[in-house]
Amino acid sequence: PFSELYHQYLIILNFKVMRISKYILSTALIFITLSCEDVIDLDVNNAPPRLVIDASLNWQKGTVGNYQVIRLSLTSPFFNSSIPPATGATVIVTDSNNNTFNFIEDGNSGIYINESFIPELNGVYNLNITYNNELYTATETLMPVVPIESVEQKNDGGFSGDEIELKVFYTDPIGVENFYLFEFNIVKFSTTYLEVYDDEFTDGSRIFAFYSNDDMELVDEVIITSHGLSERAYEFYNILLEQTDENNGDPFETQPATVRGNCINQTNPDNFPLGYFRVSETDVFT
Known about the structure:
By secondary structure, this protein is of the alpha+beta class. Helix content is 17%, strand content 39%. Strands 11-10-13-15-1-2-5-4-3-6-7-14 form a 12-stranded mixed sheet, covered by helices on one side. A 3-stranded antiparallel sheet has the order 8-9-12, with no helix packed on it. β3 (90-95) and β4 form a beta hairpin. The protein is globular.
């Protein structure tokens, strides 16, 4: 019958259309694959280099704290793999007791060292850096920190049960506003992960800092360091970590911008530096 022949015709036509569609799809995929292999040169604007100040003076509990290091470097173009040091600077730290600590550069490394630093809890310290005839200054207080009491390890953490979780317990002082920076240094990775906390909702409580990683193994060594922070230092690190968190992805978040620290260019304010001057008591647990 005609209806049956017409039905068979439609089946054959549909089959041919499917073959043609598959051919077009395969051709498109090959084209896309080849297109993805094209090299794209990006024309990125380069800004004049700025001074980067990594001045974290740490006094570990139970030590003298006399040996301190300040690192100075320069910003570089996006595609540069190396970080140029800021050499030839004059770096001085003074305290409220009229002590002066000169930091001497180790060769031309941009690493400035002092071996006579005198730490004092709640003492006020002033940083003065002269670089390329411009004066940079900052002021911070050496903030105390409570000791790390214990660390708990869970070997089947995370959603899939394959992460190692660490809880670092400490007791927050009651009635005192406190801010904390925790470093988790995974020795085999040569990488340090940072977390910051405040006691707005945990004042006077025994609480914990938390870290997890699915790449860690039971034999790995982790060096955990807690730092006391000022409120301004906490705000700086908090914003910095929010902008560099790879797990974020909220399209409604504030887009990354230059995070200004507490260092000021007194000679030319428009040529502001990056980085922060921090002075902290620390506690370490391995």
